[in-house]
Fold each of these.
Amino acid sequence: FGSRSTGSRGGGLGALARTLRSLEESRGLSRWRREMTCRASLCGSPGRSPCRPRRDARGTPPYRPRRRAAGAGWTEGQSLVESDGMDCVVETFFGATVNIPASNLEEYTPSPAQEGGFDVAWPAHEEGGLEFGLEVADKLATKGYCVIQGFMSDAARKDAVSSITSCSGWQRFIQEIEPGYLGRKANGKVTWLDSDDGQREVHGSQLDACDRQLTELSMMLEPMALGSFGFTAIGRTDGLLRAPFENQSDEDAIMSARETLDEMQVTVFGKIEDHLKFIQTRKICLFYFISGSGGNVFLHRREGVDVTIPCVEGRILAFRQDFLGYTYDPAEECYALQSWILTDGQATVMQEYSGPPEKFDQAMGLVSGPAAPVYGKTGKSVSLMSMDSMLAGNGIGPEFFWSFLVAGCDAIRHLSITRWDPTWYYEPNKELAIGKYYSNHGGFVMEENLMGFDADFFEIDHEYAEMMDPLQRNCLEVGYNVLGKAGWDRHSLKNAQIGVFVGNCGTDWTQVKLSPAVCPVNKDYLNLHSCHSLCTRLSYIFGMRGPLSTTDTACSSSLVATGTAHNALRRLEPEQAPVGNHSYVDWCIILGTNGLLGPISWIGLCGPKMLSPTGRCFTFDGSADGFSRGEGTTGCSVKVTEKEPSGRLAVFCGTCVNQDGRSASMTAPHGPSQQECLWGSLREANVVPNDIRIAELHGTGTALGDPIEVGALRGVMKARDGPIIKTSAKSNIAHAEANAGMAGLIKCFMMLMNGTTPPNVHLVSLNPHVDTNGYPVHFADEMTLLGTHSGYAGVSSFGFGGTNARADLWARASIGVRKANELDWNKLDYVIVRCPRCMGWMEHVCGAMLPSRPDKPPAGRFKANMIRDEFDTYEYCSLCYKGTYQMGGPVMESSIPTGRMFVAGSWDAWTSKTEVQQDPNGVWHHFARLGETRIEQFHFMLEENDNFAFYPAEPRAGMYIRTEGPCKWKEGHNWLIDARDDEWPEGQLIHITMTPDKQSAARVVAWEAVPEDPGPSEFQSYRHTYQVMGSWGAYEMCDMAPVRGESHLHEYGFRIGPSGQESFQIVRDSDLEQAIYPAYPKSQRRGVPVRGPDHLGKGKLFTIQGEQGERALIKVKVQSGHITVSVGIASAITTWESVDGKYRKCFFIAGSWLDGCEKMEEDKPHVYRMQMTMGERGFEEFQVLMDEDPGRAYYPESDGFASGQVFVCGPDHGAAGRFFRIEGLPGQSFEIFLEAKVQDRRKIVTWKPVLEDGLAALPWSNSSPLK
């Protein structure tokens, strides 16, 4: 953050400007007698340009160093008074340079800029460039404009004018957009001084120097823009020349050639949209008055008196055009050069797509290949979100693995002696290898990767980690990498419902490292090597709570684990009834792992002669003689998604797992069972065999297995239009056994992502037993393009115990010549963002409100078609904007069909839908009575049908949130009346209205408390019910009984279970949106505040302890918003109560500079603050927590934004991995603010640097004096 200064800054600034004295008498220079100012440098001081200019094709820097006159120099910092008798080099504003005695110079204070003076003079030295820039930034920040005095001779001015008159391309802009460039009441003609225009004859001219002087000024202001103005400057536009018309015919010709704005220009070519993008990115206007004095520039404020700046040749006017309008009214024969300093444009990142999937695929450039699939009728899909690998050939990560495959490399290497001594176990002669192994090559992971482990990161004792099975360590590393790539971190993983599914068939670790002779059997012995510890350890380390399993089906283990995970993610079809206690999850991580850690399993596989003596997998080749062993760990994360999620890599379409049953032998492959497994996966994926472009085969390279597998695929895939490409990663990395299926799955995705298949290595002549007659198939022996933008691929895996598994996935090509992952925004109907004030959707450029039922744009994507007044920033939608329009007008909301209006609300437990009356002005009215909680929710609908509902744009909304509808009601989207903030009592009558907006026809919902006449009322109170959910009843809702003679009191009795501890929570009217719970989880002690009723009670339980069988009585009393919960056991009673008034909410900061949480202090009602000091890193991150609870956090929608520039979400459970980020100098103090009631959702959490006097700086976005 740049500092702001108001004092004089010394050399090179306006305060250093001088006047000449007695020059008329001594030199006869009467022309300088008129209040002329100058800049002076004593002989010997450097006469350089103010800062280092950018050199480009235009030639020399704009300011050549001035020659020094003869005479004595002086030391830096010496004053003029101390330098009497010394000569100074003086340059006047008219460019003349003379040698003057220092005694003839004096300080000069210029007149105010509004009176014909200036604020700052261009510096004489390069050393003054920084101070000069700070001074200009200070003027722009405090008053919005700055006048800079430059230095130019008459000859230079004439040269510049000559260059201007020689320019071509003179024009006038379209009338509707012209004020954004040329200001109000524009005159004269303009042309762009295009830096890429080779025909322009100004290179090296004085006009070129003037243009680069604006570049110099822009470069000086750019580093200070964020701290002084609140935006990041990225450079300036090309120069715009402004000149008078030569004569009437010149004016007539230019004005007659002026473009007009028609519907084609707006809807097809997007002229208005391009103009608004410029309006939203231009920040500071630079005006260089090159020649001709006379006339004025009038700066217009939104409110207040205009500022008049006289036009004086040789001066530069800089002003904040994002806050000021202007009128340029020059005298005749005035020439000017204009430019704008720009900020970043909108960085549009798609977060969600709504519409037909095929339309989105077209927008993504997918013109060939299948569209993205959707699972059944649910509208949801299972998406692959991230992946990672640790494989042979140094395949650490999918990218390295893919590079290895593309290069056609062979990762097989000789067994390293660092694993075990082969002397006693190896016999190269296959026939003599009895009790030994004959194959000593394999697909080994580099030993430093296999055995290396960061025990401290995973908080595991070093000695314990050394004894752990390496596969457990590898799964921790790969598993965390997978989760990290998907957006999770250590903090957000705690208590996350993420399933862990692992395929693993064990290792020789117990014989190598954990034999009783080396490792004594103790309490940890079993957990060090057992397969069940593999998946549980990952969940234990990071505190995840989802379902988990370890699968061991030999070679198909990891693909069977994939099928198990897919089953946990599946959603029932609408017509399906739930069966059993199915626990659905939304996130899963799938891992496959295998390790070659000892000789015992090698000997076991060499006994039946399964391994190849050459140590290679000759997949599909006639020389196939067994498989080669491999190892590694791979994993991926998958998620249930809806619509088109951001960051999706691929879609899991179908999986299937089956068994051979009674076949030829337990280890022999069974073709019919493999075919049935293939058909099962294709049926679930809802694709036909012709859609599958790539088949990643099990392909171990055995003489029997390969032909059977190809034959099974032939029986399913032979009816097709084009050939299917068959590959197998085992020819590269050997047979990774339990990890083979997962490695093949990662390879399938990489092939689809790149739109090509890598070669099968060791394929010289096709195995003669492979039958390809009548079967369009290609066994790739070189890189092969798919020729489409998307496709399906399937991977098969068969365990030698007879367990078969299959998975099919879909993906777009995102790399290479067929990539289709670049969105063409013009092929969408609308590109919309949320309005930060009303939370409704608006067009991303012009802010036009999106109607509830938008019409399809007539010419492709909707283009901006309206221009607001010159002061608007287009940050809010047209419904929130109340100003005027220079062109167009507000968008109209969708009309309401004819029908009766009804309302439903929590005031009667949602039991009825009441008709709402409409007055002659079209306003709907309803009256409701506040219940005992003083919190109620409601929404409207037509004809008692929630498919034609009116509801707020966000759940639990206040009265400033936009009304959407009539359309299908979204669950949880209700208006929320919280009378605790307004001190309205229980039983207060509330008047609710829904009013059509006169300009846009949008519906505005509001409410107020109304007085009542004494006596009976037609609006009767409703008797609400309460339920308790307790651990003794598996948290099923049980009704609490009202206590006779005690109003507002309910009770429920039960007995303590065998554990001696029970937990519970209370809800109102069986509605989880109205939960009553303690402020902290598992609360047993008194004094913990009661929270609710609201939706944030997940995981917050009251806890009691007692003897088994002891009777307990729970009581809850809710009266006028105050909640009391008590539990009586024997003679002891524990009571919890809510906190009323302004202290009912406590907010804390959880920051990277804190060990825990620190409480924020209430500054004023609903505004909290806390001060922090920047650490040595120069940045800190934080979240705001309610009641120190990470499940009730305020957090940014996206990372990396400045204060007040990003939507603030919460308080809710979605804060995983998203933090506010403050950047500044080490030791700098900042003030963090929470304003829970602010209307702009970007301003809920903000921060500001603290100045030296202890006051917080006020950024332009919040409190500009120009607004």
Amino acid sequence: MLKETLPMSGEAPTASSQAITLEALGKSFAKALGQRVLGTVEQSYLQQAFDDYAADETPEIAGDDLTVLLATVWQSAQTRKSGDPAQITIGPLAGVGGRSTGCDVVQIIQDDRPFLVDSVMGELAEVGVMVRGLFHPVVETARPGDKAARESMIIVVIDPLPQERRDALGEGLAQSLADVRSAVVDHGAMNALMARSIAHLEACPAGVDPAVVEENLAFLSWLNDDHFVFLGARDYDYPRTASGGYEAEAPLSQSGEGLGVLSDPERTVLRRANEPAVLTKSMKRQLDLSEPVTVAKANIRSRVHRRAYMDYVGVKRYGADGRPSGETRFVGLFTAEAYDRTASQVPLVRRKVTNALARAGKTPGSHNEKRLRNILENYPRDELFQIREDELLGIANGILHLYDRPRIKIFTRNDPFDRFVSVLAFIPRERFDASVRERIGRLLADAWGGRLSAWYPQLSDQPLVRIHYIIGVTAGDHPTPDMDALEIAVAEAGRSWIDRFERAVRVAGFGEVSVGPVSAKWADAFGAGYRDRYDATEAVQDVQAFDCLNGSGLVDGGEPVAVRAFRTATDSSLHFRFKLYRRGSAVPLSDVLPILADMGLKALEEFGNAIRPAGDVPIYIHEFLLEDPRGDSLTFEDVKIPFEQAFSAVWSGRTESDGFNRLVLELGVDWREAALIRTLARYRQQTGLDPSQVVQEEALREYPEVARAILSLFKAKFDPTLGDVASRQAPVEALIARINRLLQDVRSLDHDRALRRIALLVEAIKRTNYFQVGPDGQPAAHISIKIASRELEYLPLPKPYREIFVWAPHIEGVHLRFGPVARGGLRWSDRRDDFRTEVLGLVKAQQVKNAVIVPVGSKGGFYPKCLPKGGDRDAIQTEAIRAYKTFLSGMLDITDNIVADGSVAHPADVVMWEGDDPYLVVAADKGTASFSDIANGISADYGYWLDDAFASGGSVGYDHKEMGITARGAWEAVKRHFREMGKDIQTEPFTVVGVGDMSGDVFGNGMLLSKAIKLVAAFDHRDIFIDPSPDPATSWVERNRLFKLPRTSWQDYDKSKISKGGGVFSRSAKSIALTPEIRAALDIEDTVLDPASLMKAILRAPAELLYFGGIGTYVKAPRETDAQVGDKANDAIRVDGGEVRASVIGEGANLGMTQAGRIAFALSGGRINTDAIDNSAGVDSSDHEVNIKILTGAAIASGSLQVGDRNALLASMTDEVGLKVLAHNYDQTLALSLQEADGPAALDAQQSFMQWLGAKGKLDRKVEGLPDDLRLAEMKGSDQALTRPELAVLTAYSKIELFDDIVASAAPEDPFFEETLVRYFPGPLAKYEADMQRHRLHREIVATVLSNEIVNMCGPSFPERLRQSAECDTGAMVIAFEAARRVFRLDEAWDAVSGLDLKIPAEAQIVLYREISTVLRRQTFWLARRAARAGATVDGLIAAYRPAADALRARGGVVLSHFEQDRLDKRVQSFIGLGVPVKMAKAVALLRPLVATSDIGDLAREAGWPEPEMARLYHQVGAAFDFDRLRAAAGAVPSADHFDRLAVRRLIEDLMSEQMVLTRAVARSTDMSVGESEAAAEQAVDTWIGPRLRIVEGVRASVDEIEASGKGWTFAKLTIANGAIREVAATAT
């Protein structure tokens, strides 16, 4: 017995395992069945299964597993009865204990019959199932209650299948086995039917050649002699007409039920549709021409025995008239023996062969006769059965001739039923290979519009290879090819690849000398797969496409890919193809498919080939079949080139891949025009007000006419070849009108909004670089547009003056500018979708910040879209710099320049729909701190007039971090807060918490500005630092050490220097344990916090100062949401303003708080300004640098400065520039303190100012966080003033508005302000005064200085109030202000008060400042009318009035009336009481009585008196007529609103005018000696009154009566008193 060992259960089976013995298998099988002894049948079952087992076929199945399998099948068979249908089970094969074997098993139990295994295996092969093992025991059964029978048990182990395939396999097996059953069961009946047919033919029908009948009968008998496997049979009757003819196109009737597989009436034999068949023309012809027996191929494939098309044998039946009346059709398979017999041994065939040989006329025994006989003997047997004798003779002779001249040749035969074409192709052996066979097969199938059903090769030692092709066609519906053309095509297909390739090279136009080298390199490069699919002509086209490829296939210069779009003859209008070429490596489909999808295309198929040229890297070709759902409306020729170029542009990174690229196909435009639309749409997306990009893309796609019109409008405006702007107006207006008409047909509101706003954007664009080309003639890689933002209705407020939007595939950026002369930083944004929103928020702060400098606010932000994912710091920085350069280039592309002669030069190929605009200045910001030199390098490349003044802070300039200027400026604000709280933080220790680290500019410099700092806690984006009880001196030294080291973090802090309980904690920690010291320092009770909660606690800590020096927004108002803040990264950390317990907040960094958060903090009692106020020093320093560089550039141009001396000069002025900048920080924070001191009393003036700005469209209170009128009314009722953050905004708006007005006035040209211009610059530049006067921004510099001084000293509402009350213009007001300062030496007094910092209480200083400010406002008012006179100048007013002021100041209070002297003494004592030095108190107190100096000066000049003498007389007139008392009373009258104040001011003006009239009259009546003493002056007044005593007494009585009436003075009472005095004054004229 065979001894093999099967792997036992529990072991891992292996292929080398030996099978168990049959004895062991029997024992385990018996055990599985629960039997002690196996019967004979069971033993037979096991023996057969054991014989079928091969251990190496199924190593996964262990010995016990096989036992389980066999036992399972055996037990399944026990319930089956003989005659039942096949029992089929398919499922997972489980081993012992249910162990998974990783295989499936097919179990089939049925009655044994022929063809079972062949049929089952055929079905498995048909569906592609991998068979691992087959067991086929057949046993004799005699189960109780059932008859004895042979039972087949087929067990097939297969690879595992999904359930869907198992189900389909089960259905297929059931059908196959049903066919087997039918064929076997009906075998006898089919034999009987054949016998009947033979008997019928033996009657020898009339009209049929008996010899033919005899041969047909021999054939039928031969079939019955085991040469044919009968599988089905069916009788048919031919339809006849009444006259006995055949009825054309009538259905054949089945005269009885079919047998075998044809028992199913749905099965067809000669056609594909259901039976009964129709008597077609071809069948009718067959009836007339054919012999009694017809042999052909059936239309159905056999499921029995072997998978092949069944053979059809039709035997005619004849009627009484001798004509065919029907036929019996048999289907089955010729047996192998039928094919093995020689042709001479097969009836029907032998007659055709013999006759053909005889008719050929070859000499018996000759070479040709023998060759022809061989051809006929080896002719395809199926063909011999079916072919007509004439056809056989013709083809055989043709084949014979081939042997004389071997070549490619085809011979065709059409199926008589028109179902297929049989083609014999002969190919010389040396030319034959699989590719030739496949090419010819495809050609033949295409020629007949059919399919290659089968092919049968014959290879021998003969010189020709024969391929027998069967081409299936649709009967009556297929083309008939031109056989000559087909022969030529087949011959060409059989030529060698090299022959065909070289011929294609010649046809393509290559010179003859090139054919050899091209062929040598490329002919063999195309592999078999390529040659099978494409011809040589296609290969040459591909070679030509290779020429443009770069050497690497990477996006590193040149074209990384090439694209060729095309259509084949079979492609519909919805389809086209393209080839993608790349050198070096294949193209990942994942990279290609999204590009196609974005263009609205679906890739249906992809074919790839690697082309391997000799001595070169491979080139990869990918062919894609694409579907365009909207292709019906497109013309392929129109979109072919745009598609190719667009795909290449996306791949090479010249444009982006998104839905806008669909426009390339939809409109037939090139990719740059699609990029232009993308640019416009992306800008609109950045506004945050438009529908999504998906909606934009959809709208442009659905309304292509609107999209075309928008592009036409853009071209009409900006194509430089279309003439000047004036000539464009009409066509532009016509296009706008057309767009508006087209928009009327847009149905969707979202689509209308998207399209309309893009069109309006084009209308608002003033410049673009779109049509610019470089030296290489190519357009720029980026697109920039300059927009007049205020012309756009749909923009968030505030709207900039201009903005430039730049798009490129790797960057988008926007630069917002609020005036022609503007500056601000460019930041590297991390907000792709709303960086404009971020920039707009920043530029609001920049506006406030820029109020101290020449330019107004601007801000830019760019988003690098291609930062390397997972890249290191250097790689990321490199890509960011590339984006930054592109952004700057986009802006400079469309910015005017100033050339050597001072004229403005416009950029090439830029059409301007605006005036000159040459001023563009940028600066560093978040992420771009080290980029200034890069920016200035680009400026130099463009030859931009600002040169390295374009971007401040470069290597030749004022380094903000090195100067520490931003932090120092912020520290001025912090010091003022504490100084006004009574603390000197430079000497007195104070606690600080903050945001930032010592490596940063603002935080690092800031935390070194006082050695009294006790930094308790701080955090940045990496770590949290806590020092609960720091030593100021020790910690300062350690912070200084860290600051001086590059790229430090809090982790580098010397932990030994941290006080007990403190430490440095990573923000990545899950939780942080808090020591008692930390809890005490932060005033919290938690013992453990996560990092976010700990940082919140730091922000809420009870420190004296919260200092912002890092990036992020950490404080908001309670009513604000985190989403509104717009800083998602810090949502978990942010707190509300009212929760902050610090006394002071210093904003060294931008956007540490929202404006509403600042206000909330201020309302809770905290001291705060705004970030724009606190950190303005950086921008101020940069502006000084820019203006200094403009001046030095002019000095170099004039020859007064040598180029080589400039940089040293700049460096030498660093300290002075810093001091000038810090003075502005000092002044601005002082200005806020003065306004804050005004308290609620200023609300009316502030409200009027806000209303005035709002009416002009200059201020949106909601945007700026300022209260509306309703809120102001509530504030007045609750005696609540504006907070410092709100005052900061008003201050900035006032300065900006005043700046514009001053620039527009003649004031900057006043010669006095030449000194202002010189004073603006550092001292060493004074020698270049002549160049200063030619400074491009000299007027703006003067206006900036003056607007700051006026608003800082007099308040934000002062300029407009004064212009209204004095009825003067801005020029007169400015001249009056400057004259007032100088005449009364108020600038000196102001500086003297500032010199008292920390020497007297801060509140005392505020009182003094306010006193000086009050005098300055009044003196400006009194001088404004004089300044409004023609020819008035500052110098003129100073010359006219300063001598008088100086003289009166020298006399002090002795010239005043008793009333005024009393008031003067009270002011002096009040100042002294506040701690003001006596001398200072007297000097400031004396300023208010000097208000009449200008009047006194005019009177003295008229009379020729000394000013002191005239002053004494003036004040005595005031006393005599109660002017002093009335003016004091008027000043105390409460004013409900602006108009009340204006009326009181006019009343005081009347009183002053009347006093001047009366003083003039008295002076004329006497001489100057009366001014030498009070008594003399009083006597002179009385003498003048004498004649008018009655009138004067009446006035005095009226005043006394009014005053005695009680309830104080009112405006009405004052008006009556003034009327009485006016009567007296009238007598003086």
